[in-house]
Amino acid sequence: MIQQGVVAPRRRTLMAVEALIWPPLDQASNKVRSGLILDKKAVTAKGLLKPDEDGLYGFLGHVISWHDLKVGERGNFRVFVHSLARSNVQRDVIAVEIEKHATIFMPVELTEAQARLNLAHARSTWVTENGFNSSLFRELPSGRVLEDHAREIDSYLKTLSEPDSNVVSLFENAIKSRKPPRGGWKFTSTQKDSIVLAKLYAIRSQGGTERVGKRICEELGIETSVLYTAIRVARSKGWLAESRKGITGGRMTAEGEEFFLANDGPARLEQITGIKLGK
Predict the structure, then answer these.
(1) CB-based contact 83:93 (threshold 8 Å)
(2) How many CB atoms neighbour CB 174 within 10 A?
(3) Can you give the residue range of the structural domain that contains 255?
(4) Does one domain contain both 25 and 119?
């Protein structure tokens, strides 16, 4: 509610005029590992600084930088930082985004730059100053965020299910909801059962590494000892890669994937969880 006589702060949500990439793509070398996305209306045709037309922001207004980083065994990551000049002498960080890349960093194309600049203009800029610093990233519960991400997706998929477990067909390959039978699913320490549980463990680890085992046991209605016996068997056979030190979860090896496919793993996994793997 807005109090009478008080003027509410304006929130600019206009689209950016035109994105400008610096250094330009035709001038950037393969060694360039950082750059800027600017709003072209913030500079003149002669490359001079241009004051904000509405007087809301300082020089350059919204600016997005990107930084290509190699993080040891984790691979390549690109970090985007969005800042806003509140005046000609004050600039605050508004948002930070981390993006995973493959073995090489793809260039930031103009289409992406324009979309990111449009999003920058659409964001709420009336935030507390000095919100971003190094201590924030140490305190952020990133593991819980990844866990919540997976849980929110699971919760939404369940809303698409009818009482007879048939999914409303909004997606071509929707995941069916599966309830364990009374007493839970029955697993033994055989290799065929172990590979199915190991595969599920690897899939769930991709969505977050926090309480993966507990989530699976609750989902299937089984004891934790059953799951971790299967994981030990899979690791001893070389089907499930060892986790990095201090990080739970795991990933399937090439040998594990081969054994999973050779022993009717996809059909069994779909029967138990409703997860239908692509061919």
Answers:
(1) yes
(2) 16
(3) 179-273
(4) yes
pTM for this model (two decimals): 0.56
Q: Kindly give, in sequence order, each residue whose CB lies less than 8 Å from that of residue 87, ignoring residues fewer than 6 positions away.
A: 57, 58
Taking alpha carbons only, the member of 76, 123, 124 closest to residue 103 is 76
Residue in this structure with the two tokens 């730059």, named with its chain if needed: 113
Within a domain: 170: no
Peptide bond before residue 180 is cis, with ω within 30 degrees of 0: no
The CA distance from 75 to 190, in Å, is: 35
Q: What does DSSP assign to residue 74?
A: G
Coil, strand or helix: which one is 200? Answer: helix
Number of neighbouring beta carbons within 10 Å of residue 130: 8
CA-based nearest residue to 109, from 45, 66, 61 = 66
Q: How far apart are CA 95 and CA 80, in angstroms?
A: 8
What is the rounded average pLDDT of the residues 214-232?
85
What does the pLDDT look like over 236-260, one tens digit per residue? 999 998 765 545 678 889 999 999 9
Which 3 state secondary structure label does DSSP give 119?
helix
- Does residue 173 lie in a domain region? no
